[in-house]
Amino acid sequence: GIIFFNNVGVLNMCGHGTIGLAVTLAHLGRVDKEVHCLDTPVGSVGIELHENNEVSVENVPSYRFARNVTIEVEGHGPLSGDVAWGGNWFFLVEDHGQVIEVGNVERLSAFTRRIRAALGREGVTGADGGEIDHIELFAPTDNPAADSRNFVLCPGGAYDRSPCGTGTSAKLACLIADGKLSPGETWRQESVIGNIFEATGKLDGDKVIPTVRGSAYVTGEGELFFDSTDPFRTGIST
């Protein structure tokens, strides 16, 4: 099993974190190039290792919860987007007037924080009152290897350097629901810094089972010591 954390707490699911975990486990000799199963807080996901540090993640069932929801964003005005689940709750926006490029990250972060504030202020949630804590903006890309470029604001205010595995899953569910992408057809999602996930989806009733493929690289190893003479070796209770 695996639990994901970011700078403010626990995440339901993390696609690029799962890819990184799979590559790390392979580096440590804990898994081989077969299909494996991981338990996450929102369900089981499958991982398959490939050559060149690439990993496929079969994510949890994903779906669009609400289409074309309009909110009033401070400093912008009315803004419409879809609410969708891809392992986390997302508000996905196409028509936003922002330039999605790495030199514009601070402005994009401020804008998407205002979107998240508007969602909370107006009581827009996912199913069963689930908090929409991820905001995803999309734009065309001039990269011929990708279909779209995105910017994703995560809980805590950090932005996703990857194309976001759960966000790509949510996008895939919306595309298939709209008939813009067929089950089994590949969607190539580029991030704000230019890396790409490839994704396909298969139908499971009224939901989509996404498979997201990307790469990760081991950049270092750390070693912790447990000194029996250290009076605080087991930590501190307050």
UniProtKB/TrEMBL annotation:
Pfam families: Pro_racemase (PF05544). Gene3D superfamilies: Diaminopimelate Epimerase, Chain A, domain 1. Belongs to the proline racemase family. This is Hydroxyproline-2-epimerase. It comes from marine metagenome.
